[in-house]
């Protein structure tokens, strides 16, 4: 059994390593063999440090854990502006509920499906692993033209951007920064949203379960999930909001009492699953089942175009020992119903750009404690705080303590950027079409890095990646080839000093 599984993994790896460009995919396969969850990057930091040292390149780790590797310019490129190639080492660790996988010890199991590289029931790590792999390929290369390069591999981008925040000014010498963390290959990013974590907490009394009840495990699963910035406008279902809708008014109608709720995961991933344990009065058993199935059918009908695989079930289980106190139950279900989720405001200055949004990412009700975690994003600082305060007010009204944390700035677009002119010209020459110059609703590190390096000319681009932050994450093979040719062309055409 073990031997067959190892052989399967070997075959998967071999298929990936034979894709073009081999230098990028081989680096990606090496990287994906290393566990690299946000805030648990010790192994990948050591991996990247050893990689640079093996190439006999100047390599060091700064005081927060970012890895910097310097490579001198190739012959004839010494008079070009020095370049920082930047990507983040950490990845979002998410898996399907029925996937047996240990992110702490296992490498990502990859497979090829047509034009896509996917993972076997987990996130792939193409965000931002393909950017890291491309930089590794540049550092290893012996025949690619480029100016002086500083490879900057930041940590903890996905859960706080503390690597970018902790990078000291004066450490980098580059004058142009190429961030390789954009996920549509026809886009050139010149701006992004900032963000802030909004966390509501409160305690509650646990009460004895009433007599003459039947218990249910309610499950919401099969949602697409995805990136809470790049895909917040897609109309995908939020498992936490759906679960709350199923529980709302349950006491008034059926004597429903909540024992536990466990929904969502990481703050930057749209919640795909939620589970709750509840009890209802025996006398209302049949009525509850009938109305639950009707409501579940209505929700699935509403979301049939965006969430065709949504599953909502209620399974009879053993009666739990405790339920939450009724007053808190009624208040918190109303607060979650009221709290804004999704797009809050569209940009007035850039057509089609989401300006402000919120993701109700995590809801936990268990053992006398409630915790609700949100990520609020905006490209306008005042609008970000406006929505954060609206959420704060909503949850404070039901007795929660609300904390703001992890605030980071957006990246203000510079339409006169010199490196932008190079990218637009070379993209048009290579692909016979003009790129889309955009700002995105995701949180790129450029805004943070720009605080300590205000004169650095920054740009972001990358290969097409779909479903980031979810087990449906996939990277386009042909797009990666396109991205690689574009990156090489840019490096050979960096402006003169």
Shape: elongated
Number of strands: 23
Average pLDDT value?
94
Helical residues, percent? 25-40%
Rg, nearest Å: 24 Å
Distance between the termini: 60 Å
CATH class of the largest domain reads Alpha Beta
Low-confidence stretches: none
> How would you sum up the major sheet?
9 strands, antiparallel
Oligomeric status of the shown chains? single chain
The tally of domains stands at 2
The CATH superfamily of the largest domain is Zn peptidases
Structural class by SSE content: alpha+beta
So, CATH architecture of the largest domain?
3-Layer(aba) Sandwich
Return the CATH topology of the largest domain.
Answer: Aminopeptidase
Q: Report the β-strand fraction as a percent range.
A: 25-35%
Helix count, per DSSP? 13
List the helices and strands and how they pair.
Blueprint: H1 2-17, H2 22-32, H3 42-54, E1 58-61, E2 67-71, E3 83-88, E4 110-113, E5 116-119, H4 126-140, E6 149-154, H5 162-166, E7 176-179, E8 187-191, E9 194-203, E10 206-208, E11 213-221, H6 239-247, H7 250-254, E12 257-264, E13 274-281, H8 285-302, E14 311-317, E15 322-324, H9 326-338, E16 342-346, E17 354-366, E18 369-378, H10 381-396, E19 401-408, H11 418-431, E20 436-439, H12 446-452, E21 457-460, E22 465-466, E23 474-476, H13 477-491
Parallel strand pairs: 3-6, 3-7, 7-21, 8-20
Antiparallel strand pairs: 1-2, 2-6, 4-5, 5-23, 9-18, 9-19, 10-15, 11-13, 11-14, 12-13, 12-17, 16-17, 17-18, 22-23
Helix pairs in contact: 2-4
